[in-house]
Write a structure and sequence with these properties.
By secondary structure, the chain is α+β, with helices and mostly antiparallel strands. It is 32% helix and 32% strand. The chain has five helices and seven strands. The chain has a seven-stranded mixed β-sheet, sandwiched between helices. Strand 3 and strand 4 form a beta hairpin. The longest helix is centred in the middle third of the chain and has 13 residues. It is globular. The protein starts with a strand and ends with a helix.
Amino acid sequence: MSPQLEIRRLTYADLPQVIAIERRAFPTPWSLAMFVLELSKPSGICLAALRNGRIVGYLVCSRYDTVWHLMNVAVDERLRREGIATALLEHLFERADRPGAQYTLEVRLSNDAAIPLYERFGFQSAGLRRGYYHDNKEDALIMWRTVAGDREAADEAAATA
């Protein structure tokens, strides 16, 4: 059994460990300044996943008007497929979900691990951003998730009763 996973708010002090994971995870990693900017936004939700006091994954989600934009999710490559990204997303949705809440994200079409993960959480494909990724001009899949509103939730509850 793997050690206990702790999910907490991401802090500026975490950024050296985050940058190390980021550089290994992505061909065009975020800069330190980009993380600092996201952490400075009061409306965003930035989470860290820790095992034995060490950062093993993180999530950055910004709020733009009424829509949450999932900006960045990464897990230490040695610990992938152990439920860390799932735990981060669960924690995000526990904190941010409200009836009618909307989330969006972009993901590489080639990211065969992330797309099914997002689909499990109710994200649906909504088109492409052509040439979105600067390193290789790969297209991004645009995905959206909408939390059921009060009426929709009541209808679903009645249909399953």
